[in-house]
Amino acid sequence: MPEFSDEAEVTRVAKRETRAELLARRRALTGETRAEAAGRVQAELVALVRRLRPRRVTAYVPVGSEPGGADLPRVLREALPADAELLLPVLRADLDLDWAAYTGPDGLVAAGRGIREPVGPRLGVTAVTGADLVVVPALAVDRHGRRLGRGGGSYDRALARVPVATLTVVPLHDGELVEALPVEPHDRPVRAVVTPADGMRTLDGGPGVAHGVAPHTSAGRTRGE
């Protein structure tokens, strides 16, 4: 057990150091760079939604330097079929994620740390299991689909409930798709990422391809932009 415990501590330290480096890099991005990245990420996700025509999507409200922009939920909802639904997370006291329907910018309230949450009825932690597309935040993802979050474990719990065949996508800034990340047993992989420069990319030939997502796409813009 001591060797295992030492190895686990090394991984936790590596995660903290990597997390701090990534957050510092995001804070250093200019407003112009963030806005341009948000527009491109949104265009990719909108094109994906229009191709898949999902009945239920889960996403979140990006805050600060997170890619996608604060209006990402509105943009996604407008791209969905009229009878589809977009769910956003509601952080519970135990750090698990409940879910509620997004009804528009006026239906969001501040929930601390810059986070905004929907005010509608809570649908329960299992609501994510019925999603056809799950948009997930992360600081980085490696080429095996392993993601590095902010350390609370909320999305690891949520992703553990998501069926294997469901398309899970992480919006990233350029340079945040990396070769490898430190990983712990509870970490849950994702299937695809979207970055401003390279568009949609599935990871290790995951189920995203079966959902009609090409391994490398650049929907909604030309490669030269």
UniProtKB/TrEMBL annotation:
The keyword Nucleotide-binding applies. It is an enzyme of class 6 (ligase). Its EC number is 6.3.3.2. Gene3D superfamilies: NagB/RpiA/CoA transferase-like. GO terms for biological process: folic acid-containing compound biosynthetic process; tetrahydrofolate interconversion. It comes from the Bacteria. Its cofactor is Mg(2+). ATP binds at K15, R16, E17, T18, R19, R147, L148, G149, R150, G151, G152, G153, S154, Y155. GO terms for molecular function: 5-formyltetrahydrofolate cyclo-ligase activity; ATP binding; metal ion binding. Substrate binds at V61, E66. Residues 201-225 are annotated as: Disordered. This is 5-formyltetrahydrofolate cyclo-ligase. It comes from Micromonospora acroterricola.
